[in-house]
Each structure stands twice: as C-alpha cells, then as structure tokens.
From TrEMBL:
Ranges: TPR repeats: 542-575
Protein name: TPR repeat-containing protein
Domain of life: Bacteria
Region named Disordered: 591-620
Keyword terms, alphabetized: Repeat, Signal, TPR repeat
Transmembrane segments: none
UniProt signal peptide: 1-24
Length: 620
C-alpha cells in the first residue's frame, strides 16, 4: 500500500524536524521555571532567566491546540532566553504550524544555533522566498531540504513550480512526467497539468489532466475541479458539469458544497506557482494523515508490531505541512478543513472551531465547513447552535441525506424524539430511491421510537435493519434485549443474543443482555455468571448492576442484591432505571430487609467503583 511504503520516511521527517512536544519541553525545563538565576544546559552553556509566565502560557496553548497563541508565548519566552535552543525551536515550530510570518526570522535564528539548520527551516526559508517572488532562492532552499525522504517525495513538485515561475514550464513538465515507479506519479502528473494550465499550454494541460484522471484512484478534489474548469474553458460545459457531478455523487460530504462548486466551475483552483507549492504541502499532510489513520486501525486490530511514530507525531507532522500551505495560501479551505479535523481528533474542539470559522463564507467549500461546525457544536453540547446550522443546511440542500441524518442525531440528543423520527424518516425516504438505505438509519429511528414508547415501530425498524445487516451485533443485541425487557418470546430473544455474543464475545453489553434473558428464563446459574462478568467489565453501568442485584435476589442472596442496588443508585442512573432500582429496594424493605430500609431513607450512595470505565448498554 502507498502509506506503508511511505512509513520509513516519516521517521526521518520527524527526527529531522524540531517537533518536540510542549509537554516534553515543560518537563525538560521545569527546573528552569523555578530558577531565579542563570543556569547551565547539558552542554554546559549558560541560559538566562526563563519567563515562566510566557512559558506556562505556551504550554497551555499547545495543550489546547492553539498554535498561534502558543507561538506568541514561546517567542516571548525565547526572547527572555535566546540561547535556550529548546525554546527557540518550540517558538519556531509553533509559528510554522500557525502559518505565522514570524516563523521566517525564527528560521534564521534557529539556523544560526549549533545544529539548528534543519529540513524544516530550509522549507520555511524556501517558502518565504517563494512568497517574495525570489524563485531562484526558493529553489536553493528547497534543495537543501531534499535529503529528507518525505521532502524528497514532494521535491519534484516544489522544484517544478520554481522552474515554472522562472519561465521554464516545459522543463518543469518534463521533469514531472518522466518520473517512473513512484507512488506519487498520479500527483506528479496532476501538478504537471496544473503547470501547463498556468503557463497557458491548454492542449497539453488537457492531455495531462486526462492522464492523471486515469491513474488516480477514485476522485481527487483538486484534479476534478481543475479538469472541470479546463473542460469549461474549452466550451465543453456538459462534460465539466458531469465530471463534477460524478465526484459529488461519490462523496456525501462534498455534496454539501455541490451548488457552490458548480457555481465556481470555471475557476481554476491553482492560478499561480505559489498556490501550486501550497497544494504540494497539502498532499504531504494528507499522506501523513492517512498513515496515522492506517496505523490506528492496525494498532486497534493488533496487527502492528514494528516501532512506529505515534499518532500525535504523525498529526504534528501533518499540521506542520498544513502550516506551510497556509503560509503560502492563507485562504486554502482544504488545508483548514484538514487542520480542523486533526484538531478535533486531538480533542481541541475550540481550536477546530476557530480554524473552520476562518474559511470565508464565499469559499465554495463553506457549506462543508458549516457542517463540520455543526458537528463541533453538537459534540461540545451547543445543541441549539448545531440544530440551527443543520436546519439551514437542510433547507439549502433538501435532497441530501447527510445533513438530515445529522439533524436527527442532534434532535435525539435534545430528546426531541418526535422531531428525530421525522428527520430519520426523511433521510430514509431520500435514501430509498437510490437503494442506499443504511441499516444504521433504521437503527437510529428505532431508538427514537423506543424512547417514545412506540415498541411496534421500534421493533419493525430493528427487524428491517437486520435484513440489511443480519450479522450486526448491535442490532441483534438491541432487538434481543428489548424483547427480554418485555418478556416477549424469550427463546427467540436468547437466540438473537447468542448470535450477537458469538460475533462479539468481549462485548459487556451483550453479555449483560444474555445474562438477563437467562435470569428471566429461570437459569440463575448461567445468568449470574454472565452478569458478574458484565459488571466486572463495566462497573459503572447502573443497569448492569441492577440486573445483577435482581439475579442475586432471585437466588436468595438478598444482602448481596441490596448492596448491588445501592451501588447502582450511586451511579446516576437514567430516570427509568432509577425507578426500577428504587422499586427493587422498596420490595426488599417490605420483606423486612433493614439495610434496604436504611438506603430508602438515605441519600443515594456513592458507588465505590473505578472511574473512567466504559458503560452503557447498546440498546435503544
């Protein structure tokens, strides 16, 4: 695979850069913050006073994903101690990530330090020369960075754009199209086409766009927009619109911007060498990002045993490349969208929102940014704002499934079950003619019906979803457990749940469901065994603890049952579960259990269980 072949280059990119996380810098200089006088580094050099306020501000800003504030604070700390290489490097890296012009003087300062000349500083100075129009200097600086394998991969594109800017488009195109055997050949060909287009070599540009399209797996946004603009310029408007429409049909997120992308179809995304260089950096960020995601999947599946950079390092490197891109083209929406995605994955929702808000409303990709903002609002509890944005997107694109589905999720989070059902029903109606009904849509609607107390419709949706995904454990569990709750056809419920646990044997929610259905069938031995296992896995799930208490009670282990219900009460159960727990305690108290009486007249006990354990049943 492409990303596996790129992996060894990431080690060198990361080691050659100055990507020392701020937390590491904090640990390395913790003593400095508390020192009132000069001190020595490991090499014996004298450092001056550390501006502890600026340094701590920088650490907090880095932790929050705010690169611009972190850069400013690190610069202030470095100004107080300019011989501290760690501070200078951190100020430099954060300035680069923020796309801050102050990265340029810091690159010169960093290069003047012993061992400070790095691949990153060479790229920064090359980009600065490009912005100033000094393309020969840009080419020289880029050449200095070419020793790094990752930089080496994009170096042909950087140098080709330098050549194009100096009037040597033919040489630039030849250099890119003669490369063989590289995983990036489709992208080299695309950049050759873009260079030909900028140089007004229209026929050659068309041939190269067509060649790149044949080599490119799937749809590439830059290629599709550029090729569509080329068709439009040739008077082939139908081909242009069909090409763009095909991409939009294949990508439901980009489809949100369909109207805007069609309206700007005649616009070439890359109109200058500077914008071309920025796109090369976005490509690098994308490759690093994909490697990070691939590694995460392999790690989760236990398939990766090699020493590898961690996800944070990959994302730091991606953000660095995006900082380069935005320094060259501050209005590049694709770079901001990718940056916001990384920030969101790192838990920096506030920083992600700020990044998205910097995408102008006039940009064709503004609806995608608006959708991402709505999701960010929903994930941070700003449900009214999310609902407002999604309603607007639904009104603007009433035939798209994605915003309607997201609106249903937001309404469910607000416990507006009637509204959620209407939204999911609309999404299902839109998907049905396309034969694109997703089982999860039916599952989500079944959850809303369940909360409304409409079991017949909830059950019908779960059964319809199982037709589409007969081996989906969450569906089998939901239907089986819901039937067990109602004591409805318990043998069939058990059959569904045994299928579910065979497919997902480590799932505590399924184990609890199967344990409960066995208890309801009178098999207390297996039921208690399963419920105890589920409680060990999810000790903070009040429903599991309630079930285990009920099983103990039926087995005559009354004291243990009351203890279990007491724990369940302290876990802040949902109102329905709390009512069941209190009813169980009342039943125990009525039978003469003194401990149950005391619990009834006391405040709910705090559960003595480990924090941070996953909980919750996978049921509607």
């Amino acid at each position: 695979m492409l990303f596996c072949r790129l992996l060894p280059t990431v080690f060198l990119l990361l080691s050659a850069s100055v990507l020392t996380p701020a937390v590491a810098a904090r640990d390395a200089t913790a003593a400095e913050v508390h020192s009132a006088g000069p001190h020595q580094d490991q090499a014996g050099g004298q450092h001056g006073h550390v501006d502890s306020g600026a340094f701590l501000t920088a650490v907090v800003a880095t932790h929050n994903g705010d690169d611009l504030d972190a850069a400013r604070a690190f610069r202030a700390a470095a100004a107080a101690d300019p011989s501290n290489k760690d501070l200078v490097k951190q100020a430099f890296v954060r300035s680069v990530m923020a796309g801050d012009p102050e990265a340029v003087p810091l690159a010169h300062l960093n290069a003047a330090l012993p061992g400070g000349q790095t691949i990153i500083s060479s790229l920064v100075l090359g980009n600065d020369a490009a912005v100033r129009g000094d393309w020969p200097a840009a080419s020289r600086y880029y050449q200095q960075a070419g020793a790094d394998p990752m930089a080496h991969l994009i170096m042909p594109m950087l140098q080709a754009w330098c050549q194009q800017a100096q009037g040597h488009a033919d040489e630039a195109i030849a250099a890119l199209t003669h490369i063989q055997g590289s995983v990036l050949v489709p992208f080299y060909t695309l950049h050759a086409a873009l260079i030909a287009q900028v140089a007004q070599k229209k026929a050659q540009a068309g041939d190269l766009f067509a060649l790149s399209a044949r080599m490119m797996p799937g749809y590439d946004l830059l290629l599709t927009r550029s090729y569509a603009a080329w068709f439009w310029a040739q008077g082939e408007q139908t081909k242009a619109r069909n090409l763009l429409r095909s991409m939009l049909e294949a990508d439901p997120v980009l489809a949100l911007a369909g109207t805007q992308l069609q309206a700007s179809i005649s616009h070439f995304p890359v109109a200058s060498p500077q914008q071309g260089v920025a796109r090369a950096y976005v490509l690098t960020a994308f490759l690093l990002r994909q490697q990070s995601l691939q590694q995460s999947r392999q790690s989760a599946a236990g398939q990766e045993n090699r020493p590898m950079p961690n996800d944070h390092q990959f994302d730091e490197a991606s953000r660095l490349m995006l900082g380069f891109a935005l320094g060259l083209d501050p209005h590049l929406a694709e770079a901001r969208l990718m940056l916001a995605e990384i920030q969101d994955d790192e838990g920096h929702q506030t920083a992600a929102r700020e990044t998205l808000l910097r995408i102008p409303q006039t940009d064709p990709l503004a609806p995608v940014a608006a959708f991402r903002l709505a999701l960010a609002d929903g994930s941070t509890g700003n449900l009214d704002e999310a609902r407002e944005k999604l309603n607007r997107l639904v009104q603007e694109s009433p035939n798209l499934i994605l915003p309607v589905r997201a609106l249903g999720n937001t309404l469910s989070a607000q416990k507006d079950w009637k509204g959620a059902i209407a939204a999911y029903t609309q999404a299902i109606a839109l998907a049905t003619p396309k034969k694109a009904v997703d089982w999860s849509l039916l599952f989500l609607r079944s959850m809303a019906y369940h909360e409304m107390g409409d079991w017949p419709h909830a059950k019908a949706d779960l059964k319809a979803a199982l037709v589409l995904a007969p081996d989906e454990p969450v569906l089998l569990n939901s239907l089986g457990y819901s039937m067990a709750e109602r004591k409805e056809d318990l043998p069939e419920a058990e059959k569904l749940l045994r299928r579910a646990i065979a497919l997902s044997p480590q799932d505590a929610a399924i184990r609890d469901s199967l344990g409960w259905v066995r208890v309801e069938q009178g098999d207390l031995k297996e039921g208690i065994m399963l419920l105890e296992q589920a409680a060990e896995q999810t000790p903070e799930d009040p429903e599991v603890n309630y079930h285990l208490g009920e099983a103990y009670w039926r087995a005559g282990r009354h004291s243990e049952a009351v203890d279990q219900w007491n724990v369940a009460l302290g876990l802040k159960p949902e109102p329905g579960d709390e009512a069941l727990i209190r009813a169980a305690l009342a039943r125990a108290a009525a039978s003469g259990d003194k401990k149950a009486e005391q619990i009834q007249h006391a405040s709910p006990a705090k559960a003595d269980a480990p924090a941070g354990q996953p909980g919750g049943k996978q049921t509607p």
